[in-house]
């Protein structure tokens, strides 16, 4: 077994956190990650409801016991009802990412949760350190969904050199080799998203898992056009990494206005709809249960790290 601050603090068997992917990480996926020895995080996107969080948390607990919940910090400034719903579930971890979490950290701590934030540069680190988070997730631009612009390995090194907080790595980690690499660099674990997106336990469009399986690591684009098309008010500094399709090839460099992008968008058409996924897409080659993915990554990391224990 791999023993790190993350496994000890959370009482988990493997140093893997399932990313709280909005619209994809529901109760089943979250529960299966926890059942396999990691900790799954429920993705409570801005459009989630109190009822959804309660129902999906119950599903996750029935399958895997403990869970975490991820929230988008910037959206809480307008309405923090989802934070109330999250703390009511008393999760092991509450992720407050993309924005200054300072007003919300005390409430999460009062519920007994550890608080983490995904960060994309050292400036983000200083903000969340001052807010009192318990650990940080260094999220590189290889990650799927909304992220920053620095690669995972350079960012991870920079963050490790800049803080005494425990650090988890995110972005491009989809095999035992990837987990072993970030652990060897000094991370306490990995935040896994894309590797789980072809699992049958995900929620979201039925065509998304096969689209990911068919994609290579070169088949992603960092873009804001899907947010604009769907009127998602993400702050401008965060684009999202998604699979390329006809829509991105047509509109990515056109400078079209929101109305035009919205008219062209079709959530039911795989060639026109968003499928957020990271550069680890080329490592996802089959539709596989999430538990199998987590166990394979953990076992592969143990084999890699064992090479240096002789």
From TrEMBL:
InterPro entries: Aldolase_TIM (IPR013785), NMO (IPR004136). It comes from the Bacteria. Keywords: Flavoprotein, FMN, Monooxygenase, Oxidoreductase. GO terms for molecular function: nitronate monooxygenase activity. It holds the Pfam family NMO. This is Nitronate monooxygenase.
């Amino acid at each position: 077994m791999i023993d790190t601050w993350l496994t000890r603090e959370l009482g988990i068997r493997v140093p893997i956190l399932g990313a709280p992917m909005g619209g994809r990480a529901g109760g089943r996926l979250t529960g299966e990650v926890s059942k396999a020895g990691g900790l799954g995080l429920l993705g409570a996107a801005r459009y989630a409801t109190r009822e959804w969080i309660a129902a999906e948390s119950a599903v996750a607990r029935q399958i895997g016991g403990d869970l975490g919940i991820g929230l988008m910090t910037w959206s809480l400034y307008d309405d923090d009802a989802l934070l109330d719903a999250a703390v009511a579930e008393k999760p092991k971890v509450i992720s407050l990412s993309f924005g200054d979490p300072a007003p919300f950290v005390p409430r999460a701590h009062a519920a007994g949760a550890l608080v983490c934030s995904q960060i994309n540069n050292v400036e983000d680190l200083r903000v969340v350190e001052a807010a009192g988070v318990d650990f940080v997730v260094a999220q590189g631009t290889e990650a799927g969904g909304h992220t920053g612009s620095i690669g995972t390995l350079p960012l991870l090194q920079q963050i490790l050199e800049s803080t005494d907080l425990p650090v988890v790595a995110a972005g491009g980690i989809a095999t035992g080799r990837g987990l072993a690499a970030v652990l060897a660099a000094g991370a306490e674990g990995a935040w896994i998203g894309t590797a789980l997106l072809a699992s049958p336990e995900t929620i979201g469009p039925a065509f998304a898992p096969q689209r990911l399986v068919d994609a290579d690591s070169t088949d992603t684009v960092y873009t804001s056009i899907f947010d604009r098309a769907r009127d998602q008010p993400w702050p401008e500094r965060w684009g999202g990494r998604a699979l390329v399709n006809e829509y991105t090839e047509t509109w990515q460099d056109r400078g079209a206005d929101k109305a035009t992008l919205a008219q062209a968008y079709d959530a039911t058409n795989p060639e026109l709809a968003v499928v957020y996924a990271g550069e680890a897409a080329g490592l996802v080659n089959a539709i596989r249960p999430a538990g199998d993915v987590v166990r394979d990554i953990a076992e592969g990391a143990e084999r890699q790290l064992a090479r240096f224990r002789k």
